[in-house]
Amino acid sequence: MAFFKKLKDRLFNSSSKIDEGLEAIVGDADPSQQPAVDKVMEAPAQAVDAVPDAKTLTEREQPTIETDPAEAETAARAETAAREEEQRAPRGAPIAESPQTALPPVIPASDREQAPDPAPTRGILGRLLGRDETPEIARRVLDDEMLEQLEELLIAADMGVDTALRVTANMAEGRLGKKLSVHEIKTLMSDEIARIMEPVAKPLPLYKKTPQVVLVVGVNGSGKTTTIGKLASQFRAAGKSVVIAAGDTFRAAAVEQLQVWGERAGVPVLTAPQGSDPASLAYDAMVKAEADGADLLLIDTAGRLQNRGDLMEELAKIVRVIRKKDPDAPHNTLLVLDATTGQNAIGQVKVFQEISDVSGLVMTKLDGTAKGGVLVALADKFGLPIHAIGVGEQIDDLQAFDPQEFADALTGLER
Ligand SMILES: Nc1nc2c(ncn2[C@@H]2O[C@H](COP(=O)(O)OP(=O)(O)OP(=O)(O)O)[C@@H](O)[C@H]2O)c(=O)[nH]1
């Protein structure tokens, strides 16, 4: 549960976008559908009018208190003076200036206008039982117009037109004309999204034959280095021995960054002089991994998509060379995608599928983006396994992909 909370908090930007959108859509009901509000019996009312006012209390209490008449007169005078003083005083906060602002401060300002007046909604039974028929749950009839609005909401969360259409069409099946609350819509939406994602939620497979070679590809800045560091750390924690090869030999900064991650994870990082052949480094890394009896070899690669032909050739050469040591290598080609690029991630999968043999995905930066829906589009379009998701910059911010948890977090659903 704590884990879900964490993911939900991390995906706040995506979920809050859908959350707010759904509230607006349901609140946007055609007046002809009224009454679109169901009243639900709730826990005993907040005793707004059950709290006796101070004056009543004082009057009730007076007879029980024996006092000297002179003392009582002095006290009465003091009380009157105090009351007059109170009425004159400007009362620090504007709280009591209007009945609206006199609501208890625990109700957030945004909710104050909508806070139902308890008096009119109280039924006879409610009064007798001291209960209120609150809160009111808004509902809206699921029709074509609402479906279109839901579609637009999902497209705005970067789910893409095709996937948004599929999700809403399945949500509508057998439910057109039914009145739905925000929570019911979220549940339907979340279940539908989870259903699409279920088949692709697969952790990185581990093979008996070692070293298992994992080639990590993706455009610059997508989070390859960080993901390699996080993966190395997790495998180390699981008792596996890991070697990293800093295959982006053109960028000194990339190599240095990988060395830092290697230190954090306690894993050796093989480097080569700037500008040297990454294929030759990959070969050396294979030799070292075999000699060390390593379980895993993680190879970082360059991500300069601007020159697709060169990158394709570079990756092909790395593969050719490591196959001299193991004809089945690389055993996995992980494509790292940055969630903040939204629909661009679709194009990146297409390109990397052309230039390498992508076997699975890691999506990074799902924290702090409102574009998390792109992962649903990727699952729907390509069906490639999603091995993990990145939800932060720290070493333990790489999580296994859980479709239902992700779908709940994306839609802001509290179960
Ligand atoms: N918020 C967040 N930031 C991340 C995540 N993964 C990576 N980053 C950040 O994204 C930036 C780029 O990450 P890198 O790992 O350097 O990306 P790269 O693909 O190796 O990029 P190059 O080194 O340029 O090839 C860094 O500032 C990371 O800290 C994540 O899951 N969440």
Automatic annotation (TrEMBL):
Biased composition (Basic and acidic residues): 74-89
Gene Ontology CC terms: cytoplasm; plasma membrane
InterPro entries: AAA+_ATPase, P-loop_NTPase, Signal_recog_particl_SRP54_hlx, SR_rcpt_FtsY, SRP/SRP_N, SRP54_GTPase_dom, SRP54_N_sf
A GO molecular-function descriptor: GTP binding
Signal peptide: none
Residue span(s) of domain Signal recognition particle SRP54 helical bundle: 124-197
Coiled-coil ranges per UniProt: none
Domain SRP54-type proteins GTP-binding: 211-412
Localization terms from the record: Cell inner membrane; Cell membrane; Cytoplasm
Pfam families noted in UniProt: SRP54, SRP54_N
All copies of domain AAA+ ATPase, residue ranges: 210-357
Annotated GTP binding sites: 218-225, 300-304, 364-367
Biological process terms in GO annotation: SRP-dependent cotranslational protein targeting to membrane
Disordered: annotated span: 44-126
Record-stated family: Belongs to the GTP-binding SRP family. FtsY subfamily.
Known partners and oligomeric status: Part of the signal recognition particle protein translocation system, which is composed of SRP and FtsY. SRP is a ribonucleoprotein composed of Ffh and a 4.5S RNA molecule.
Name of the protein in its database record: Signal recognition particle receptor FtsY
